Amino acid sequence: MSALQGKVALITGAGQGLGFGIAKAFAAAGAKLAITGRDAAKLERAAAALHNLGADPLILPGDVRQRSTANDNVAATVARFGQLDVLVNNAQSTVSGLPLESIDDATVALTLESGLLGSLYHMQAAFPHMKGRGGSIINFASRTGIAGEAGFGIYAATKEGIRGLSRVASREWGPHNIRVNVISPAALTEAAAQYLKDNPEQEKYYLGMIPLRRLGDPVTDIGPVVVFLASDEARYVTGQTINAEGGMTMF
Questions:
Q1: CATH number attached to the domain at 8-239
Q2: pTM of structure
């Protein structure tokens, strides 16, 4: 039996990159999927690829920065599939490479609202549907916050805020059998590949910090970690941050 057979998962930011990779891993694991993103065309292309894996995903275009979007996403998922078992809060926008003194209000709003608030809104919307049956919520952190990497001030703060939010939720919602965990990934997404192509000196720097000497594949390296946390195999795991980054962060 597939690890997620019979489970319904809502994945935000699944039109491309890491979110799309996770959606492919979930489809292969037998989950029923709802995928969200701001770009409807990207969601359509992602859905076509997921169809080839046997999935029939619900497509939900919208901006996670709006509470109404989160409410609508969850309501539409439950209306289509009858339940919600897994929430993956992957969506995140930001502007990187800015020193603290140069971060403006627009960057603050974009980063906090898409990451921290988008995660919070979807968690709040999902709670009533998970309260009676249990569920798994998976949020995303970053080494930039854990290690305090220069040039990522508001992004790092947002990701650490998500970790704090997740720990509180794991305590408050644990009695309802809702598990809340965090993954800190190092994934070779399209955006990461482009960044390394544009900044070849950074590729040597980052790979030098990773004991496994490579960035993770979104589907085959990061996806299985998310599938595990979403599955019943992780039924006694909550409140944790798992570093799926080739050994770059150790503590």
A1: 3.40.50.720
A2: 0.95
- Could you state, in order of their start, the residue ranges of all structural domains in the chain? 8-239
241 — phi, psi (to 5°)? -110, 120
Q: C-alpha dihedral over 60, 62, 64, 70, to 10 degrees?
A: -50
Beta-carbon contacts of 225 under 8 Å, excluding residues fewer than 6 positions away, are 183, 185, 242, 244
Active-site annotation, residues: 155
> Buried b / exposed e across 56-94, counting CB within 10 Å, b at 16+?
ebbbbbbbbbeeebbeebbebbbeebeebbbbbbbbbbb
pLDDT in tens, the chain (251 residues): 589 999 999 999 999 999 999 999 999 999 999 999 999 999 999 999 999 999 999 999 999 999 999 999 999 999 999 999 999 999 999 998 899 999 999 999 999 999 999 999 999 999 999 998 999 999 999 999 999 989 889 999 999 999 999 999 999 999 999 999 999 999 998 888 888 888 888 888 888 999 999 999 999 999 999 999 999 999 999 999 999 999 998 87
Collapsing DSSP states into helix, strand and coil, what is residue 142?
coil
Task: Read off the amino acid at residue 237.
Answer: V
